[in-house]
TrEMBL record, chains A, B:
The keyword Coiled coil does not apply. This is Protein-arginine deiminase. One of its GO terms (cellular component) is nucleus. Its EC number is 3.5.3.15. InterPro entries: Cupredoxin (IPR008972), PAD (IPR004303), PAD_C (IPR013530), PAD_central_sf (IPR036556), PAD_N (IPR013732), PAD_N_sf (IPR038685), Prot_Arg_deaminase_cen_dom (IPR013733). It comes from Microcaecilia unicolor. The active site is at 350, 471, 473, 644. The lineage of its organism: Eukaryota, Metazoa, Chordata, Craniata, Vertebrata. It catalyses: L-arginyl-[protein] + H2O = L-citrullyl-[protein] + NH4(+). Catalyzes the deimination of arginine residues of proteins. It is found in: Cytoplasm.
Length: 662, 662
């Protein structure tokens, strides 16, 4: 509470005041002034700082020697810079005078007790508590910003627990504690003060479900922790012992920022005067601190991979072997989700999105569970949640009316970009939606609200509802690349495929067919080029992609040089939704410079697939290594590809999210 | 859609493109270039504007005579400034060259059709439609800001309707129309275009419940209106006739800004290319406009009164007569709410709050119905809702768990203030709440969320839960005053009352009692001063008021000179809640310079009540006229006073809310 407190004076008896060190008090010099007084002087004990103010602005320090005119407008401000040893050991005296008379008409005495009651947190974000006098109740973004950070305690350090650490009301151990933010209450006060004053820690009703505070105390068996604030506990009475002491608390976040929650939570401590028997205690002053709950942050393709996830199903042994080789080359871990955990669901990209949360003192990965309820639905919670591996969901209630667009193949993130001078150092989230007028499928509000509320990766909504599955990963991806931007956007391009096939036809390869070696209908280049329906359908799908290309260029600040067109062809089904004709090359897994690209089964010319040759010729100059993985029977025929069937845990960005300005 | 659309070229056959006048198209010059070409030139028909760009920045206008190097990075942008008379009547031709050869290797031709499809609204807020090319899709605050405004159509112009105009899907007449915002669609296009193109107006799913769009068309009987967009209608196909025409629409708002609704709503129009049979139409371009739904705005005491409302109950004839005289002097209307409408509920201040909504083309008062469900509960809807008198509620669902703090005696607004340089030209809303740690009564979230969401009168929360009734109007009010600020804050002051009584005791009037002439226990000044319990209780209540004083000074930028202390005494009940001992002087009705103040029944000294004398001496120098209204038996004994028993409709502020920066 930075407000100046008003102190009523009396000439009849001394006034006793308790105040915080550094806080300004306004002495109400007019209330008790003798009616014939026209000036006053004021002096105090050495520790008392006395200022004279007009209109709320300090104009002078009082030396105790001047007389001041008693006209409305002069205010006297008093503050103390050190804490009291004894009750009332500081003093000020206001004396009232008439005209030039030397002797005072009357005077009012105030005995002051100054105390330190201060909450200390890591407001400067260096991982340590700060005792500097910063405004701990304000939180600002940017490299010069300040304000402490809270993690949602969504990992499971307690092996015996069945849920996240934040779901229980205990500190399960040292590891659990490390996920929390420390807060220390410092008290310097005469011990006697607390015989008729109380100290209350408090949270507002609206913040109480967003944090939990543990009090650390010493028991015979060592340090213990007691849940004292948060949830139904709105206040906690601190019991000072000596009056010169500190109390340590640990705070855990319980909720991520959301549509109804900015992420900021406040904790206050108030000194209550309970010296008057029979009436309620009245607040003397409050110290307040703010935390921002760390947002959930996604990791773009250009960040180093740590671990690749894939499902084992009956028909993908070849694919698994090829992927294993790729992952080995890329030097990261491979985790195969077995049948018992995937229950026949191969689409591990759709089930979850990896991200992380970070505070100055700690960071760990957090998997966001998609609202999709398929075979893999229990996997993130059962198999990933663990020590320093968090779990988050936007849909505590089950059985939401979800569509295919709610699967997380439809949730991607761009590399860092700068758009018209505005920086997105953690990139921008990309989700697919329906074009407004089509009133079609779109992500449910639970998910989009959650994504927008994280603030640090401002989402872009694309038009993906033209596709049968409807995921953005069906027509775009990002790959690392040399240069200032550090990446290229790869976009599916029917036009580019037609050009390639026309070239090949002109070179005399019109009779070469796609899908050689596969037990599906083979079509020659010339047949494809002569197919008017297919031509029309691909003019349409190219227009849909172009619409998104324009949005991406504008919203990511891209030029044509940042975009690479990757050959693709689509066919429309009866409902006029698009599906990839041959495996969609952009639906790849990106592991550093190693790309695992769906094997397209294009026309074999001079012993090499011309689609593979084309995409390699586009990507290899960027120092990328193209490996083509055969996903035809195992994924492609089920409307998905490599990217849909894998998931990658990546290292967090080295950029601290609190340094950005959303 | 301000994105640049990409146009694919072909050397085999001409490309046909439809574009908006003024929109930039990117010609994809590389896709069809002969492999041995190294430069190109481009020229077009006179109406076509051709630019050369590098990295998305325009660097040169093309005259058609230069040759440009074909290296990745050069982009060609094309736009047209006038609309086409016929399909494809504009043209550009790109020719490709090798080395110094004069004759082109090949060339690609594009036939362009340019059309105007534009939504016009009152984006510059002058009450008229604007055809200027402003960014109609962005809304900015401030005197230099731009963006159109929508009113919630919450009055009832249709006498035969039982609800607000926005509750039905019709335009009931000219008056109903005046409450809506006009939007005109301009089309300039070759008529033939619409044989295979469609125009769709659309709103997003999330905006669809916040507005309703009516289409004006001419029928035999005159103009008619058809509901075409909003609610379940997400899009509407406009059917152009000649191709050179305008279509008029009227938009009404359906919802006030709220916790989940910023107030901004968007309407788009998209030209769909349906020229390819058998595939869905694809979007060519979109024009988008934004409206902000006007906030509900409260009227501070310093605005001129228009009409006073009061209830007739069996025991208030004297009060009614005194109030009638006051209202007559203040030259405003008086409306007495009879028994049949008030059903024994006299607290008309608590039932509702008057405010208004304003757009550049229209404004009208809007009553906000409180969640309180007492005798008057039906009054605002049944008796006030009418032509150009709107009705709003924050609680469409009934039977919310409300407390006394949800009554609107606990909802006030300050006059305009400036706080540390930040201007609040419409004042700040003031609501009473519990002190955080007390976990006590507070306004329900429905109401506070609504108040915060209006944005233009940023609320301040005070601590009023120390009072039995718990309303801010029990201890504060604002009165007009000369000077730059234009007002004073009046605060109840037990200290000031004790001083006054001590003075009177010293002057020999200790034996004079309060409540003379009333059939209640009389207490003398000396008895009151000697009552230690009362003294203690009033130290406590003074501290509660001082706590609020500090908040008010900080949040309204006030100095002591802006505050007047008004004598008051409180007693605590068994639950330690405070009640006014004698009628609370600040609980007054303010009608311009005429104040209707509760008659305090203080000690009569020299023939005059010393409390009346004191308050008159404080307020009359401000050119205010004090009239004391006897509310003792009719209101005071039921824990309320004049302000609680009245309500005032005031003129709206002359300040336009969109000129402020929240």
């Amino acid at each position: 509470m930075s407000q100046r407190r008003q102190i009523h004076l009396s000439c009849q008896q001394p006034t006793y005041v308790v105040s915080a060190v550094g806080a300004e008090l306004i002495l109400e010099i007019y209330e008790c002034m003798p009616s014939d007084a026209d000036s006053f002087d004021i002096h105090g004990s050495p520790e008392v700082h006395i200022s004279i103010a007009y209109d709320g602005e300090i104009v002078s320090q009082s030396t105790g020697k001047e007389k001041w005119s008693l006209h409305k407008g002069v205010e006297v401000l008093v503050s103390m810079q050190i804490s009291s040893k004894n009750i009332g050991d500081h003093m000020v005296k206001v004396s009232y005078y008439r005209g030039e008379e030397d002797s005072a008409l009357d005077s009012a005495i105030v005995y002051l007790t100054s105390v330190v009651v201060s909450l200390d947190i890591d407001a400067n974000r260096d991982g340590e508590l700060n005792r500097q006098r910063v405004d701990k109740a304000s939180w600002t973004w940017g490299p010069e910003g300040q304000g402490a950070v809270l993690l949602v305690n969504c990992d499971r350090d307690n092996a015996s627990s069945s849920a996240m650490d934040g779901a229980d009301r205990i500190v399960s151990g040292e590891e659990d504690l490390k996920d929390m933010s420390r807060m220390v209450l410092s008290i310097q006060s005469p011990t006697a003060l607390f015989s008729n004053h109380k100290l209350l820690l408090h949270v507002s009703l609206s913040d109480a479900d967003k944090l939990r505070l543990f009090y650390k105390f010493v028991a015979v068996s060592g340090s213990k922790f007691k849940h004292v604030l948060g949830e139904e506990k709105l206040y906690y009475e601190v019991e000072p012992a000596s009056g010169d002491e500190t109390h340590t608390f640990y705070v855990e976040g319980l909720k991520f920022p959301s549509a109804n929650f900015s992420g900021l939570v406040y904790i206050g401590i108030t000194l209550l005067d309970c010296s008057l028997e029979g009436v309620p205690g009245s607040p003397l002053f409050t110290d307040k601190v703010v935390f921002r709950v760390a947002p959930w942050i996604m990791t773009p393709n250009i960040l180093d991979p740590v671990e690749v996830f894939v499902c084992r199903i009956s028909i993908n042994p070849t694919f698994l072997q090829q992927l294993t080789d790729l992952v080995t080359n890329a030097r990261c871990r491979l985790t195969i989700c077995e049948d018992i955990d995937n229950r026949g669901d191969r689409w591990i990209q759709d089930e979850m999105e990896f991200g992380y949360i970070e505070a100055p003192h700690k960071h760990f990965p957090v998997v966001l569970d998609s609202p999709a309820q398929r075979g893999l639905t229990g996997f993130p919670f059962k198999k990933l949640l663990g020590p320093d591996f968090g779990y988050a969901t936007t849909h505590p209630e089950l059985n939401l009316p979800v569509s295919s667009l709610d699967s997380f193949g439809n949730l991607e993130v761009s590399p860092p970009v700068t758009v018209n001078g505005k920086e997105y150092p953690l990139g921008r989230i990309i989700i697919g939606s329906s074009f407004p007028m089509l009133a079609g499928r779109r992500m449910i509000k639970n998910v989009t609200d959650f994504l927008y509320a994280q603030q640090v990766q401002a989402p872009i909504e694309l038009f993906s509802d033209w596709l049968y599955v409807g995921h953005v990963d069906e027509f775009l991806t990002f790959v690392p690349a040399p240069g200032k931007k550090g990446f290229r956007l790869l976009l599916s391009s029917p036009t580019s495929c037609y050009q390639l096939f026309q070239e090949k036809q002109q070179q005399g390869y019109g009779d070469v067919s796609i899908f050689q070696g596969l037990n599906v209908i083979h079509r020659t280049i010339s047949e494809i080029l002569a197919d008017d329906d297919m031509k029309k359908e691909n003019i349409y799908t190219q227009r849909c992609i172009d619409w998104n290309r324009a949005i991406l260029k504008e919203q990511l600040g891209l030029t044509e040089k940042d975009i690479i067109d990757i050959p693709a062809l689509f066919t429309l089904d009866k409902q006029k939704y698009a599906n990839a004709l041959f495996p969609s090359l952009v639906n790849m897994i990106v592991l550093g410079k190693n790309l695992g690209i769906p094997k397209p089964y294009g026309p074999i010319i001079n012993g090499r697939c011309c689609l593979e040759e084309k995409v390699s010729s586009l990507l290899e100059p960027l120092d990328l290594r193209c490996t083509f993985l055969d996903d035809f029977y195992s994924y492609h025929e089920f409307q998905g590809e490599v990217h849909c069937g894998t998931n990658v845990l990546r290292k967090p960005s080295s950029y601290k999210w609190w340094h950005m300005i959303p």
